[in-house]
Write a structure and sequence with these properties.
With 328 residues, the chain is α/β, with parallel strands linked by helices. The chain is 35% helix and 26% strand. The protein is built from nine helices and 14 strands. The structure holds NADP nicotinamide-adenine-dinucleotide phosphate.
């Protein structure tokens, strides 16, 4: 691979625009190509961000020999098929969250990636953010003692729109895969992937998708509580409470540049502020690129075992709600 990483963007929806700006901000990254189901849309997107090639089908992008890695930005229900296509053409993949609809799809994609020795990572950008990494460091150094509780909320009110993927079960809509995946990834990063008990409840709405949910996970010595949803407003904060203090994130906890360490009397001990270099997506781009240049098959900051652990918890939650996606 050359020193410049040639990125291909598969699907040109909302997040693809944000990601394209981030690619263009990273040295050694080039937005080389993009693909849409419509040639016109691909040309419009590609011209906007200076891509060299625009394709009117995802297959053409996957087949382009000059593409080093493909960022998959389609709706959740399409990820399995789209990632498989990329692997069939020998392409490394950074795939948007949630990576698949369920564990069965994820396990199959991971075994495809391993068979072909391709890089595969979920674009859980939170885990590459400086604020998150600082909190991990403080926790691992014992700065807050033993963790006893974590609270994390992510809600983003959205007006009902039957055409929006969020409200459409056939596109993997619903708040769990869209928003809930963040607080679950957050909690598990600090407390692990095997809670001894999970209690949860969800409201179903839209066209039959989970709109809001509340989850309590019990660990041997700690509790985690999570809410998420697009039918309610929230502070979108996260706090990790330990026996010696706490770590508190500013809202929007998964991408904030600010995190604070307090002692057990509430005294501020340290504040870490790391302004984004672009829009916050640059960190996952740099992580994927550095893994590719070192020949690593998966991310160090967001390894596949973490993605599998989170997906298993999301499967378990949906089982509690008796909720399945089309075709499951
Ligand atoms: N990391 C983050 O902060 C973040 C934020 C938002 C979303 N996301 C994730 O990014 C992914 C896309 O979200 P988005 O908000 O960008 O969605 P979106 O605006 O609806 O765009 C999705 C794109 O996927 C393509 N697509 C392929 N098959 C489709 C189908 N059957 N129906 C509709 N679109 C289809 C379309 O692109 P073409 O027409 O070009 O083919 C469409 O524009 C999701 O996995 C979501 O969870 C991540």
């Amino acid at each position: 691979m050359s020193e410049i990483t040639n990125w291909g963007i598969l699907a040109t929806g909302k997040i693809a625009h944000t990601f394209a700006k981030a690619v263009n901000s990273v040295s050694d990254a080039r937005l080389y190509a993009c693909a849409s189901r419509s040639g016109e849309k691909a040309a419009e997107f590609g011209s906007l961000y200076g891509a060299e090639r625009f394709y009117g089908s995802y297959e053409e992008l996957a087949a382009d020999p000059n593409v080093d890695i493909i960022y998959v930005a389609s709706p959740m229900s399409c990820h399995y098929e789209n990632v498989k296509l990329c692997f069939e053409h020998g392409k490394n993949v950074l795939c948007e969250k949630s990576i698949t609809l369920n564990s069965a799809q994820l396990e199959e994609l991971i075994s495809n990636a391993r068979e072909k020795k391709l890089f595969f990572m979920e674009a859980m950008w939170m885990k590459c953010q400086p604020a998150f990494l600082t909190a991990k460091k403080w926790a691992s150094e014992g700065r807050i003692g033993e963790i006893r509780a974590i609270r994390a909320d992510f809600s983003n009110p959205v007006d009902f729109d039957p055409t929006d993927r969020l409200f459409r079960p056939e596109l993997g809509g619903g708040s769990l895969l869209d928003l809930g995946v963040y607080p679950i990834s957050f909690v598990t990063a600090f407390l692990g992937f095997e809670p001894c008990e999970i209690n949860s409840s969800a409201y179903v709405g839209g066209l039959g998708v989970d709109m809001d949910e509340a989850v309590i996970m019990k660990y041997p010595n700690a509790f985690a509580s999570i809410t998420s949803g697009f039918d309610m407003e929230n502070e979108n904060r996260a706090v990790i409470v330990g026996t010696e203090g706490r770590i508190a994130f500013d809202p929007w906890f998964f991408c904030t540049d600010t995190v604070r360490l307090f002692d057990k009397n509430g005294k501020l001990l340290e504040e870490s502020v790391t302004p984004h270099l672009c829009n916050g997506y640059e960190y996952e781009i740099k992580e994927a690129q550095s893994c590719l240049s070192e020949g690593l098959p998966e991310s160090r900051l967001n390894p596949l075992s973490d993605t599998v652990g989170v997906m298993k918890i999301m499967d378990a939650l949906r089982k509690q709600w008796n909720f399945s996606y089309n075709g499951e």
